[in-house]
């Protein structure tokens, strides 16, 4: 039996375990991961964060002959970070896939859409402005997406599903928010296939002695000497067998300090830290929801933002964020409060928690953040889709590599089966998910909706009147209903008509049933602001000067410049932002350490 030896309740056995663990951790830091032999410094560069941006930066540094240490607080199982779990969507302009689909896209049209969505308004022309470098990054990124981005990735073996998706269709004006044309290219193999070529490059560099992993190394501080970055320090965490995405132990077994003239921070955003999300929530989006679900693993905690700020880095645009409005509670969660997003087609009717239909641009797939503001303005944390089996069979897709086994596993037969049946992951959520109500009549559906929430906010007569009014608009090829216009617009695009838009029909048509209501939760996801960087990925201080030796890339840098997306994303730009900013920072850091 253990006996307490201190008022804190620590037992003798626990004390011996911790002491032994700390000794083991010291040995782990010193011997299991030795410094590169014969050098006064441990590496030419240290990269903090082994997600996609970190892998890209490390690959670039190693390719230039630099010796790199890649650190992360998570175990090896989580290599690739959040990108592994993604749908693999990438933003290209005037791609081969677009041309195949008959889509005419240009750099100028994409830049018009980017500016209309970003709404840069914080000192674009002022070198001290929050949007000064964000704007420059946006220019560079649209050039990249219109130019070498696709050929660069194709040269690494990445391929894409030939039907281009049309995400974030916008608010209704040509120069406003949204994609004027389809630009969402789904990677064949989803997120894992985007991560794979860079993971292979880094593992090859490790095998060649040019790089080394430091799993379970949590950075707690960036070391500076004479105003310049000279390394990092932190805690060695106990070994963990946690599967990818599962929370891992935070038990400390040792300490470390590693030296390098360059540190590249690629640690991701704040999506799993709801306290930070609420702390930075902007007034323009209303009151933060009391209840949210989480679209990223628990380790996406935002710690490195404050740590880098203490080292002199400037954080800009912290109130800009990207959360989804169509979140489902995962019936088989991987991480705490795990949510999955519906990527909807245009046909489901969208209502607030009281059963009032949203107006434009709060239509499925049109304007994520405007709809988020409408939901918070309703005074409730959730909203509803009212739809049909015919619609979900063709229009519902779920975010995440694990929710798309056909695309992720490159299974052509399974992919083709979507033509004649509802995808199995959708049916599993309909059967097992707590957010679905299925019924044969509208009265039964309303009863189920009210039972699910327990608040009896939905009035049958009111809901029926709104659905019948919309259904009457289906009798002609023209209409005054903006959503019906959008459906007909979608059906005129071959990609949507083939795979993402159900034939136009009445919601209350019995042959399209059963009726389905889906409770939609707010799902945390991306940080749009972050560390301000110049076009080389160098982190800037409050005076706008680079902090010597400090770089950042990926979500922690607002995907470049501290906010390349501005206020809104065009979608398919998050993975691309990690790729581009990781490449920029890696190449610049390699040049800075040339001898």
From TrEMBL:
The keyword Oxidoreductase applies. InterPro entries: FAD-dep_OxRdtase_2_FAD-bd, FAD/NAD-bd_sf, KsdD_DH, Succ_DH/fumarate_Rdtase_cat_sf, TAT_signal. Coiled coil: none annotated. Residues 44-575 form the FAD-dependent oxidoreductase 2 FAD-binding domain. Keywords: Flavoprotein, Oxidoreductase, Signal. Pfam families: FAD_binding_2. PROSITE patterns: TAT. This is FAD-binding dehydrogenase.
